[in-house]
Amino acid sequence: MKGYVVCVYKSIINEEKLKEYAVKARAAVEKYKGKFLIRGGKYTSNEGDKSPRTVVIEFPSYDEANSFYNSKEYQDAHSILEGYAERQHQTIEGV
Q1: Where are the beta strands (DSSP E) in 1-95?
Q2: Full domain range(s) for residue 22
Q3: Which residues contact 75 (CB under 8 A, 6 or more apart)?
Q4: Cα dihedral sign for 48, 41, 9, 12?
Q5: Average pLDDT of every residue of the chain
Q6: Any idea what the CATH number is for the domain that residue 32 is in?
Q7: Staple partner for 14: which of 3, 41, 84, 90, CB 3.0–4.6 Å?
Protein backbone atom coordinates (compact mmCIF):
# COMPACT_ATOMS: atom_id res chain seq x y z
CA MET A 1 0.00 0.00 0.00
CA LYS A 2 1.25 3.46 -0.87
CA GLY A 3 1.64 6.11 1.78
CA TYR A 4 0.71 9.75 1.48
CA VAL A 5 1.78 12.86 3.33
CA VAL A 6 -1.00 15.45 3.36
CA CYS A 7 -0.20 18.91 4.62
CA VAL A 8 -2.87 21.62 4.83
CA TYR A 9 -1.63 25.04 5.86
CA LYS A 10 -3.78 27.21 8.10
CA SER A 11 -1.47 30.21 7.81
CA ILE A 12 1.89 31.20 6.38
CA ILE A 13 3.55 34.05 8.22
CA ASN A 14 6.83 34.24 6.29
CA GLU A 15 7.02 33.27 2.60
CA GLU A 16 10.84 33.45 2.59
CA LYS A 17 11.05 30.85 5.37
CA LEU A 18 8.61 28.69 3.41
CA LYS A 19 10.91 28.85 0.36
CA GLU A 20 13.93 27.96 2.51
CA TYR A 21 12.00 25.03 4.02
CA ALA A 22 10.85 23.85 0.58
CA VAL A 23 14.41 23.45 -0.73
CA LYS A 24 15.44 21.21 2.18
CA ALA A 25 12.12 19.36 2.31
CA ARG A 26 12.32 18.52 -1.41
CA ALA A 27 15.73 16.88 -0.91
CA ALA A 28 14.26 14.71 1.86
CA VAL A 29 11.23 13.82 -0.28
CA GLU A 30 13.52 12.70 -3.11
CA LYS A 31 15.74 10.67 -0.77
CA TYR A 32 12.70 8.72 0.48
CA LYS A 33 11.35 8.17 -3.06
CA GLY A 34 8.45 10.57 -2.65
CA LYS A 35 6.55 12.14 -5.53
CA PHE A 36 4.72 15.46 -5.26
CA LEU A 37 1.10 15.10 -6.40
CA ILE A 38 -0.07 18.52 -5.18
CA ARG A 39 2.15 21.45 -4.26
CA GLY A 40 0.06 24.58 -3.91
CA GLY A 41 -1.57 25.71 -7.14
CA LYS A 42 -5.01 26.84 -8.19
CA TYR A 43 -7.87 25.70 -5.96
CA THR A 44 -11.52 26.15 -5.06
CA SER A 45 -12.54 26.00 -1.42
CA ASN A 46 -15.84 24.10 -1.38
CA GLU A 47 -16.32 23.58 2.37
CA GLY A 48 -14.66 24.69 5.58
CA ASP A 49 -11.94 27.27 6.06
CA LYS A 50 -9.76 28.40 3.16
CA SER A 51 -6.17 27.21 3.20
CA PRO A 52 -3.31 29.21 1.68
CA ARG A 53 -1.51 26.02 0.61
CA THR A 54 -2.01 22.25 0.41
CA VAL A 55 0.67 19.66 -0.35
CA VAL A 56 0.20 15.94 -1.09
CA ILE A 57 3.21 13.64 -1.51
CA GLU A 58 3.01 9.98 -2.54
CA PHE A 59 5.50 7.42 -1.20
CA PRO A 60 6.00 3.76 -2.16
CA SER A 61 4.58 2.70 1.22
CA TYR A 62 3.07 4.00 4.45
CA ASP A 63 6.26 3.03 6.29
CA GLU A 64 8.38 4.96 3.78
CA ALA A 65 6.18 8.04 4.28
CA ASN A 66 6.66 7.80 8.06
CA SER A 67 10.41 7.24 7.62
CA PHE A 68 10.52 10.43 5.55
CA TYR A 69 8.71 12.46 8.21
CA ASN A 70 10.89 11.15 11.03
CA SER A 71 14.16 11.47 9.12
CA LYS A 72 16.87 13.89 10.22
CA GLU A 73 16.75 15.49 6.76
CA TYR A 74 13.06 16.31 6.99
CA GLN A 75 13.16 17.31 10.65
CA ASP A 76 15.96 19.77 9.84
CA ALA A 77 13.72 21.27 7.13
CA HIS A 78 10.68 21.21 9.41
CA SER A 79 12.49 23.23 12.08
CA ILE A 80 12.86 26.14 9.62
CA LEU A 81 9.07 26.68 9.63
CA GLU A 82 8.76 26.77 13.42
CA GLY A 83 6.87 29.95 14.27
CA TYR A 84 6.42 30.87 10.59
CA ALA A 85 3.58 28.56 9.49
CA GLU A 86 0.66 26.76 11.07
CA ARG A 87 -0.54 23.58 9.41
CA GLN A 88 -2.02 20.13 9.78
CA HIS A 89 0.38 17.37 8.71
CA GLN A 90 -0.74 13.74 8.32
CA THR A 91 0.65 10.47 7.04
CA ILE A 92 -2.12 8.35 5.50
CA GLU A 93 -2.13 4.80 4.14
CA GLY A 94 -3.55 4.52 0.62
CA VAL A 95 -5.96 1.92 -0.72
Answers
A1: 3-12, 35-39, 53-59, 85-93
A2: 3-41+50-93
A3: none
A4: negative
A5: 96
A6: 3.30.70.100
A7: 84
